[in-house]
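REQUEST ID: PR-0412
SUBMITTED BY: lab tech R.K.
PRIORITY: routine
TASK: structure prediction, single protein chain
INPUT:
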Amino acid sequence: MQKHEVIMLKAPMLKRICAYIIDFFVFVCFLFLISVIVNPIINSFSDVKRCKQEYYNIAMESGIFKGTNFDNLTFISEDYDEKLTIFYEKYDEIKNYTDLKANEYKKYFEYDEATNTYIPIKDEKEMAIVYETILNNQCTKILSKNSAYLDYSIRITSYQILELLISGVIGAIINYIALPLVLKNGQTLGKKLLQLYIISLNGDYHCTWIKLVFRSIVFILGEILLGVISFGVIPIFSLVLALVSKKEQSLHDFIVGTTVVDITLFPTESNTRRQIVVDSFSSLDQELYDGEVQTIVQDNSKKSKNQEDSKNE
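STATUS: complete
OUTPUT:
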């Protein structure tokens, strides 16, 4: 059997970044669509219903919220001063409300000796911003002193995180595992559009489905999940690694032994350094034979013969 070498070009980093952006957008779309299905399932749990109802009851009793149920619960947007006064009196915090007017927001209020109160002096639009700030920052702190309110808030938030986590995992599996198995050679939709291709650097060029799945899992766990936990440090490190490494491997490529190639360009003298040479033909995909992938396939024996002929001349 004659030995061949297949020469491909490593994918330009700009193309890879564009593919990542496209894939992330597709992932967000999957996340949104799946959450539409997961949300009613989570909300159907009896404990979730009870927590939301109790939270709603406490919020409405405070007098600073309005709405017909938990899902459309919002802060008041009218008669601010009157309702805030009632709220602070209810929670025995009226002195704190007076201190806010006298100190932190003193340029918005003027003391009236006749009524012994602080009167708003700015226009309605400016005052609305002040009152909304008090609602969001100050009133929420006071409500959090209510142990039941705080407990229900935490439990509801945990269910929302669970919903996001389930939707994210399913979306990631579809986008980064299922699609690359359906499409050829580990291509996500972004790689498919930009004609990028995953190849193995361990032995033969061909990536088995096991290696593709392993690569996707490492990417999901290492660069998405841990990326969120590390506030983007790991994805940035992965990008830097791809920029400085000889084979332009990002973190998950380095772990699995793969890299990304561009299948739209022929190698030329000007981009020789970006070439990857693979020395096996044993399991190349059929599209290589069909000419679907633009690569240079050379017969080593013919190449050697041509070199000898050139020397003789």
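NOTES: Confidence is low (pLDDT under 50) at residues 279-305.
REVIEWED BY: pending
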